[in-house]
Design brief:
The complex is a heterodimer of chains A (304) and B (489). By secondary structure, chain A is an alpha/beta fold. Chain A has 12 helices and 8 strands. An 8-stranded mixed beta sheet of chain A has the order 3-2-4-1-5-6-7-8, with helices on both faces. The two termini of chain A are 26 Å apart. With 489 residues, chain B is α/β, with parallel strands linked by helices. An 8-stranded mixed beta sheet of chain B has the order 3-2-4-1-5-6-7-8, with helices on both faces. Chain B starts with a helix and ends with a helix. The chains are: A alpha/beta (304), B alpha/beta (489). At the A-B interface, helix 3, helix 7 and helix 10 of A face helix 2, helix 6 and helix 9 of B.
Chain lengths: 304, 489
């Protein structure tokens, strides 16, 4: 994928974000670090949903750095560098196994954009020449299976589905076995949206995870959590709970094309080491991009 | 998560005890804590700052009361202001006398529009109205099928026409309602971003063409700082009449409620409390205020408890308690009910001041599970008359439940203690009962749940000290003795 196009689209998607956060920072330039300025930095970061704790740490760090005279040159560059450090991660590549299929399980709260993200992911992987099979594991929400079927048709992916209301774990199992026998490179298992506080539903998710492992030992190889970028601090609780239940391996940050900032991923990355792997920046099948922390932060401040 | 507000306020304010009036100086630190609480609850920064100003103005110059702690006084001011700002409540939907009332639902993708349409239709149906759902989401794949399924589930007809554009579908839907004698039309529009000009224009055209009588924004309670941007844009485009806040059954603190109300001035009418289609409730600013402040939502808990407990069953249990006839089977039933209310930890968090009673490692669910297992392994007779449980029965029960005999013993003892206390508790409210039990457990009056766990831990590594063993033997002897006495009687 051409880096240029990625940058452009991300910048487009984040323009509104940048307008607010960048606007704040522009005013920070060329001034001495005093309490007003630190307050302003705080404001800017909180408005980006970075959360109080992460914000406090960044602000304290800036304050320290100035006291120690570590900052040479532009304050903005310094802050960017600090934020980059907080997002330092071990790559966005998806796991792949020697004997296919690689199984990717996708989970998240209701309305976060799981099914759409799966469609995008299928498109993304198909373009790389991979043979993708989708498992329609959302047997709960009305017409979720139809929704995924439509996407399967549009993206030219294979699909395994069961009747609505059937056991999602059995669908996941079938999808994995079908993936093996039909020679798919990648199986993506959809799951119904669930709030992380619903204990029985989280148990169900654990069961799906377990059953996938029975169909293919070692699977799922990736557990992707879909997070809505418009979510506030609750996103951290979501990430914690889902990771506790099914050991998430990465995040798809959806709906970054609005005015939301998705700053919560900074805390999530800090606290759980959970990397963002993809971002969703639109409603179309190819509106999925690989997450790049540098581009992400640059784009945040791109209006400067 | 945020009992620390009360704690933070206590340390920030109680210093000023003894002064006579609230001043800007002596409130500064405390108000910072309030601000932190609001921001952690995802209240928009500007909204939070405006709100703090209001609280400050309202408290400034007030006398510091002797009867209350200054922190309590401030919490009260904050709470009142919050309730005042988020109210008043108008859960009724104004209906026209003649011709169909048109309700238009709009919102971002994934906020829960279609589900909410279904919930609203069900609610109206139960009020004796005749709603028609119109599938105007032609954007997302299978959105029409979803609405049709939801419509079928609640028994409300759905109008859909895949070959028209959304504006035409809405207009045709209203005609259809007139033709079929439906008095309410609910338009389910596609989710859209507030910055998507083309789609916002489309919404405006629907508004112009169909002239909906009520226009509701469906907003996600999980939303963070961005809530103000989208709510404002939708309000500018459509002049909203109400907001429906969804996904409040999670643990989001829901600061979006305050942000949205503040920037739009539009009343929040309903809240979505679950995935089931009857989980739509009128908005209560009081509960929301407590929730945002992290102070628990007692009313919400009582409501939950009422839902879980069958009225009849509750009365029977109460009568039994009063007469001291409450046995282990009844206890078991109550345990099941408590379990059906959801996570025990979550419930405690709804109660003010209760959440700090649990450490992070505490696992009340696990302990409840052990108790359940023990009771399940008893015969009917043993449940009704625990005193018949002798050495061999106890061993059998322990074996059957995968516990240790001393744990069975503990449970029976705890239950006996409880039974005598319960007679006194029978007349209390549900809340007071739970509170009292928690209080007793904490002070060790009920030697029940916690010791069970400690004993289990001791098995893993550290040996039980000789002293403890001696004590346990002694207690066992005494118990046997009293058992014998009882049997002789």
């Amino acid at each position: 994928m051409a880096m240029g196009s990625f940058f452009k689209r991300l910048a487009q998607g984040l323009q509104k974000t940048a307008a607010s956060i960048g606007g704040g920072f522009r005013r920070l330039l060329g001034r001495r670090v005093d309490q007003d300025l630190l307050d302003e930095l705080e404001t800017t970061l909180i408005t980006a949903d970075c959360g109080l704790d992460a914000t406090d740490r960044i602000v304290a760090r800036v304050k320290d750095a100035f006291a120690q005279r570590e900052v040479t040159g532009d304050l903005l560059d310094f802050v960017k560098k600090e934020m980059r450090g907080m997002l330092e991660q071990g790559g966005t590549a998806l796991a792949s196994v020697d004997s296919p299929p690689t199984v990717i399980m996708v989970c998240g709260v209701n309305g976060s954009g799981k099914t759409t993200s799966i469609a995008k992911l299928a498109t993304f992987l198909s373009k790389q020449g991979k043979k993708v099979l989708l498992g329609a594991g959302d047997t709960f929400r009305a017409a979720a299976v139809d929704q995924l079927s439509t996407w399967a048709e549009r993206t030219g992916s294979d699909i395994v589905k069961a009747s609505p209301g059937s056991d999602p774990a059995s669908v996941a199992f079938d999808a994995c076995s079908a993936g093996k026998s039909r020679g798919a490179d990648i199986v993506i298992v959809d799951t119904a949206g669930r709030l992380h506080t619903q204990a029985p539903l989280m148990k169900e998710l654990e069961k799906i995870h377990r059953v996938i492992g029975k169909a293919i030992p070692g699977a799922p190889h990736e557990v992707l959590l879909v997070l809505d970028a418009t979510n506030g601090q609750n996103a951290i609780l979501q990430a914690k709970q889902f990771t506790k239940s099914v050991g998430c391996t990465g995040i798809i940050l959806s709906k970054l094309d609005g005015t939301a900032k998705g700053g919560a991923v900074i805390s999530i990355h800090e606290q759980l080491g959970l990397p963002v792997k993809f971002i969703g920046i639109g409603e179309k099948a190819d509106d999925l991009e690989v997450f790049d922390p540098d581009a992400f932060i640059d784009a945040l401040f791109s209006s400067m | 998560m945020f009992e620390s507000l009360t704690q933070g306020l206590t340390s920030a304010f109680d210093r000023i005890r003894g002064t006579t009036k609230f001043t800007e100086q002596n409130m500064r630190d405390g108000l910072k804590e309030v601000r932190r609480a609001l921001l952690s609850a995802d209240v928009n920064l500007e909204v939070a700052d405006r709100f703090i100003k209001r609280v400050e103005e309202s408290a400034l110059g007030r006398d510091v009361l002797k009867s209350l702690r200054p922190s309590e006084q401030i919490v009260q001011v904050v709470y009142e202001e919050l309730v005042g700002l988020m109210g008043p409540v108008q859960p009724a939907i104004p209906l026209r006398r003649s011709g169909p009332t048109v309700l238009m639902m709009c919102g971002l993708q994934g906020s829960g529009k279609t589900t909410t349409c279904g919930k609203l239709a069900k609610l109206l149906l139960s009020q004796g109205q005749h709603p028609l759902l119109v599938a105007a989401d032609l954007q997302r794949p299978a959105a029409i099928e979803q609405l049709k399924t939801v419509g079928a589930q609640v028994g409300v007809p759905v109008y859909a026409e895949a070959n028209l554009n959304p504006v035409q579908v809405c207009a045709a839907g209203i005609k259809e309602a007139e033709k079929t004698g439906k008095n309410i039309v609910i338009l389910d529009t596609a989710g859209r971003l507030h910055v998507d000009d083309a789609l916002m224009k489309e919404l405006e055209s629907i508004d112009k063409r169909c002239n909906p009588h009520q226009c509701y924004l469906v907003a996600d309670a999980l939303t963070g700082q961005d809530a103000v941007n989208s709510a404002k844009a939708f309000n500018d485009a459509l002049s909203l009449d109400g907001v429906i806040l969804t996904k409040l059954d999670g643990d989001a603190r829901g600061g979006a409620a305050l942000s949205i109300k503040d920037v739009t001035g539009v009343p929040i009418k309903f809240v979505g409390m679950g995935e089931k289609l009857d989980a739509l409730e009128p908005f209560r600013p009081e509960g929301m205020a407590s929730r945002i402040l992290g102070m628990g939502d007692v009313l919400g808990l009582v409501h939950k408890a009422q839902q879980a407990m069958d009225e009849d069953e509750a009365r029977k249990a109460q009568e039994k308690m009063e007469k001291g006839k409450f046995d282990l089977s009844d206890f078991y039933t109550q345990l099941q009910r408590v379990k059906s209310m959801g996570s025990f930890k979550g419930m405690l968090e709804l109660m003010p001041g209760m959440s700090q009673m649990l450490g992070d490692d505490d696992d009340p669910e696990g302990e409840m599970g052990r108790i359940e297992a023990i009771i399940s392994s008893m015969t009917e007779k043993e449940r009704a008359k625990p005193e018949v449980i002798d050495h061999s029965r106890r061993r059998r029960i322990a074996k059957g439940s995968g516990t240790e005999p001393h744990e069975v013993n503990k449970l029976i003892k705890m239950f006996e203690q409880m039974r005598s206390v319960m007679q006194g508790m029978a007349k209390m409210s549900m809340m007071d009962r739970v509170k009292m039990m928690m209080g007793m457990q904490k002070t060790g009056a009920l030697q029940g749940l916690a010791p069970l766990k400690q004993k289990e831990r001791s098995k893993r590594g550290a040996n039980i000290s000789d002293d403890d063993r001696r004590k346990a033997r002694k207690a066992e002897k005494q118990r046997k003795k009293s058992n014998r006495k009882r049997h002789r009687k």
